[in-house]
Amino acid sequence: MKLSQLLEQIEYTCVQGGLDKEIKSVVYDSRKVTPDSLFLCIKGAVSDGHKYAKEVVEKGATVLVVQDEVEVPEEVTVIRVENTRYAMACISAAWFGHPAEKMKVIGITGTKGKTTTTYLVKSILENAGYKVGLIGTIEAIIGDEVIPAANTTPESYIVQEYFAKMAEAGCDCVVMEVSSQGLMLHRTAGFVFDFGIFTNIEPDHIGPNEHKDFDDYLHCKGLLFKQCKVGIVNADDEHVQQVLEGHTCTVETYGLHDNADLWAKDLKLVTGKGVLGIDYEVQGLMDFPVEIDLPGKFSVYNSLTAIAICRHFGVSEENIQKALRAAKVKGRIEMVKVSDEFTLMIDYAHNAMSLESLLTTLKEYKPKRLVCLFGCGGNRSKLRRYEMGEVSGKLADLTIITSDNPRNEEPQAIIDDIKIGIGKTDGKYVEIIDRKEAIAYAIHNGQPGDVIVLAGKGHEDYQEIKGKKYPMDERDLIRDILAGK
Ligand SMILES: CC(=O)N[C@H]1[C@@H](OP(=O)(O)OP(=O)(O)OC[C@H]2O[C@@H](n3ccc(=O)[nH]c3=O)[C@H](O)[C@@H]2O)O[C@H](CO)[C@@H](O)[C@@H]1O[C@H](C)C(=O)N[C@@H](C)C(=O)N[C@H](CCC(=O)O)C(=O)O
Ligand SMILES: Nc1ncnc2c1ncn2[C@@H]1O[C@H](COP(=O)(O)OP(=O)(O)OP(=O)(O)O)[C@@H](O)[C@H]1O
Question: Is 406 annotated to bind ligand?
Fold first, then answer.
């Protein structure tokens, strides 16, 4: 592709060299440069792409896009821009032929509920006959291809590459999680979202390499609403107006009160046959009853968000109801049927805040006993161990402490840290290092009316021990335990 074509959407200065060049690849990692590459120098958290300028030229890069000065031979074209990450998004969109324009693009941002809501939207739209691509924390789904994710929102070049593959695979739409870091680092620049969604916000992701403070976090979330056509936002979130500050889209709201355009009323917790769910009535822009086998008020928010989006695609009430009744999200309060007498679920909660929110929600179902099984990662914050221990000790009737990615630490040492947290409460606990044995204990000792949570691993299908990831999927462990293996 001609260099001038790639630069069409950006403001730049050509510092040296000509624009009449044919580009054979667009690259932001020096290790992937080949002859006639355009190389983008990205300033990262660990490294700085500018320092590879000489090396990439030796490998055959003919164009460098920079935001700082570089010294390279004069025949090499140097394009200077204000921000190379932003330029990368626009150049990648051009490189892949602006694939976002060929589909409807739905972007979901918020502290919690992004993953769950993306899968709910996908289920509803697919049930109604749409072909849907997905990009998120767990994976990217492009037709039959499933690619495990490294980031919730990948680098802009990858976003555009996935979009192009989705358009080619015949996807009508794509639903993606948009993290605030993704917005901050321009991973989703270079195109317009058809729908931008805001679920909720609470202090999180603040620290080195993340956001400097809560205001910055709010500001970054708000960027989505300057880059989408229709914004669909949670009216009940206390920060919604700050997130919408300076928005350029039309705005629609959802929530649990009649001030929202689409709202839910008459919430009823439902239990039975090993499943927890919630029923409610949708009101406002649509009017019909909903039954979902996902627990708690936050499942109402997530499903209502999905309904608000899918309404724009003309999906019928019947199709929405049918898809939501069958909805299940891997590793997110995922109920696994082991008995009609008690409920068992797998969830990704792996910090105190998520665990507290989950256990509090489950307590509303008034289980006979709330049993919480979890471990904490090795070579990670000790504080998390104390805090999770304390939360579980306070809220669960029984805690089963076990292992979760011990990495290079001794599992027993991690368990001992968790016990310090539980020790601050009068919560009962047992400790069983081996996760399969711990799950077997939970199942074999399940009592009628119990709710058992296997927390921490969620969608993960491995246990990381001393630098190696051993296959371990909790669904398989449960199957083996039930089969007596
Ligand atoms: C802090 C951060 O955002 N890091 C991400 C980032 O790394 P970076 O750009 O800082 O990369 P770097 O290693 O400093 O390198 C800078 C540049 O030099 C280049 N380079 C580097 C080495 C070399 O030999 N040659 C070379 O050219 C690199 O390709 C890059 O272009 O780019 C990588 C992919 O390109 C990401 O995988 C990586 O995410 C890490 C894993 C991460 O943890 N990110 C978190 C903060 C994050 O983004 N999280 C959000 C939200 C998650 C949530 O909601 O919970 C997410 O969207 O995932
Ligand atoms: N709308 C919500 N509000 C509050 N908590 C939620 C909500 N939806 C889900 N949760 C809880 O948070 C956990 C994570 O949910 P989910 O993965 O959908 O969110 P996320 O935004 O993708 O979060 P993360 O970035 O942590 O992966 C769930 O397992 C559940 O316990």
Answer: yes
Residue 461 CA to residue 441 CA, distance in Å, equals: 20
pLDDT surpassing 80 at residue 151: yes
Question: Residue 43: beta bridge partners?
Answer: 48
Ligand 1 binding pocket (C-beta < 6 A) is 28-31, 42, 44-47, 49, 52, 150-153, 155, 179, 181-182, 209-210
> Is 101 annotated as ligand-binding?
no
- Euclidean distance between CA atoms 50 and 33, whole angstroms: 14
First to last CA, the chain: 58
Contact between 343 and 442 under an 8 Å Cβ cutoff? The reply is: no
Q: Is the CB of 300 under 6 A from ligand 2?
A: no
* Ligand number nearest to the C-alpha of 302: 2
Write out the residue range of the structural domain in which residue 257 sits: 99-326
349 and 313, same domain (yes or no): no
334-369 as b/e, with b when 16 or more CB fall inside 10 Å?
A: bbbebbeebbbbbbbbbbbbbbbbbbebbeebebeb
Q: What's the complex ipTM?
A: 0.95
CB of residue 276 inside a 6 A radius of ligand 2: no
Atom of ligand 2 nearest to the CA of 458: 29
Q: Are residues 113 and 230 in the same domain?
A: yes
- For 89, the token pair is 């998004």
Tell me how far apart the alpha carbons of residues 190 and 197 are, in angstroms, rounded to a whole number: 18
pLDDT in tens, 289-320: 999 999 999 999 999 999 999 999 999 999 99
Q: State pTM to two decimals.
A: 0.93
